[in-house]
Design brief:
Length: 435
């Protein structure tokens, strides 16, 4: 394909989320006309630092911080209208304009207050086998969608449809909440009023976003697809059941927005220079000792959404190989390299030892059963500050070797290296940013 026809780009987390996608999306935004999210909800979270201001985003793409960009919340998302309105209010209070630059798919599913109760209720009774969810109601909202009695965003605009659907849903969900989880139940009328009020406030924004995207494609506008969470949290390809309830991988773009695969021209993976995950589930390169704590503190690895300390570990190339293959990464942005500035040595996991021998490719079942041990290759640390370095040549040779080793192993170029939270603290080597 001629590079000039490669208009549209997806930005996708290559690990278990929190890779720093927010900064990368923010950095790339200027080149695009539209930014669209295709899955997840307010379980996501990132902070964008911009002109001495910090913006906390959960549902709204960081494109909203850039005047003139249209932001779309796609049909594949689950949207809590109350969370959306409070995020909009906070952004407005910090001077961000939100008018007709934010649209919501009328087919996105709605997260009602009962969904977070269901989420927390299930986690409470699950004991040891809990998932460690964000408690935002994501799983229960997607469950209702798949069971075909979910409440759509467009239902918030139609009182009789909303009442009918809520009556049916509460019949089942109140029994679960009251009798199984031993928690609060909900009144149909209270939820109808809640839904109508929020629907009314958002009315102008609730539209068929698929039609808007199709028109943008016909007009040859440039679209960025913003992934939330990460590849290993994908409901189909992640570390099931310790995953989120949506398709975070590139495949989710087509169903979650209604755009055809041939319109996803390039896919950028975002990976941290090490690995983290929040919540339960397998993590082969996890560090549970003081080294892990050092990474956590240096990397400030505490959740934006829940404040939970993140689990930390060495970079895992088996994970990144799987992510590269699943998403078809055309390039990778490597973030938080500076976290290793004071380390003498930096091990990288190149393969796993399994009961059947060594493998370089994601052995799903063995990972699930805890039967893999990482084979580590130790790289020399650079022992110099790299924070804020903006050219690849200025990086210490050991840091350049670290980056080159990863791209050689993955057979995928690392086009962006992030050396700090700010826009200017970024090395741009090649790829989408320089095309
Ligand atoms: P849920 O998405 O709230 O159902 O949580 C399911 C799993 O995904 C839990 O392990 C969460 O910690 C994890 N998770 C959900 N959203 C994010 C995110 O944005 N970053 C990292 N982990 C996430």
């Amino acid at each position: 394909m001629n590079p000039s026809t490669k208009r549209n780009l997806a930005v996708i987390g290559a690990q278990w989320g929190d890779e720093g996608k927010g900064k990368i999306v923010d950095l790339l935004c200027e080149q695009f006309d539209l930014v669209a999210r295709y899955q997840g909800g307010h379980n996501a979270g990132h902070t964008v630092k911009f002109e001495d201001k910090h913006y906390s985003l959960h549902l709204i793409p960081s494109g909203v911080l850039h005047p003139g960009k249209l932001c779309i919340l796609g049909n594949g998302m689950v949207i809590a209208p109350d969370a959306l309105l409070s995020e909009m209010a906070k952004l407005r209070a910090s001077g961000v304009t939100i008018d007709d630059n934010l649209l919501i798919s009328d087919s996105a599913h709605c997260i009602l207050p009962l969904h977070s109760e269901l989420d927390r209720g299930r986690e409470r009774i699950a004991g040891e086998s809990k998932i460690g969810t964000t408690g935002r109601g994501i799983g229960p909202a997607y469950e209702m969608k798949m069971s075909r009695f979910g409440i759509l965003m467009r239902d918030l605009l139609d009182e009789s449809v909303l009442r009918e659907k809520l009556t049916a849903a509460l019949l089942e969900k109140n029994a679960l909440l009251g009798q199984v989880y031993g928690g609060d139940t909900f009144e149909v009328e209270t939820l109808v009023q809640w839904g109508l009020e929020h629907g009314e406030t958002l009315r102008e924004r609730i539209v068929d976003t698929t039609l808007i995207l199709h028109q943008a494609i016909r007009d040859k506008k440039k679209i960025m697809f913003e992934g939330a969470q990460g590849t290993l949290l994908d409901i189909d390809h992640g570390t099931y059941p310790y995953v989120t309830s949506s398709n975070c991988t590139a495949g989710g773009i087509c169903t979650g927005l209604g755009v055809p695969p041939r319109e996803v021209h390039e896919v950028m993976g975002v990976a941290k220079a090490y690995t983290t995950r929040v919540g339960e589930g397998p993590f082969p390169t996890e560090l549970t000792d003081e080294v892990g704590e050092r990474v956590r503190v240096r990397g400030n690895e505490f959740g934006t959404t829940t404040g939970r300390p993140r689990r930390t570990g060495w970079l895992d190339l088996v994970v990144l190989r799987a992510a590269t293959a699943l998403n078809g990464f055309s390039e990778i942005a490597l973030t938080k390299l500076d976290v290793f500035d004071e380390f003498d040595e930096i091990p990288i996991c190149v393969s796993y030892q399994t009961p059947r021998g060594e493998t370089r490719h994601w052995p799903k079942t063995d990972v699930e059963r805890g039967k893999v041990t990482p084979n580590l290759r130790t790289m020399k640390g650079w022992k110099r500050p790299t924070v804020g370095i903006a050219t690849f040549e200025e990086l210490p040779v050991e840091a350049r070797d670290y980056v080159r080793f990863i791209e050689d192993e993955l057979e995928c170029p690392i086009s962006v290296v992030s050396t700090g939270p700010r826009r200017e603290e970024t090395i741009i080597r090649a790829g989408v940013l320089s095309r």
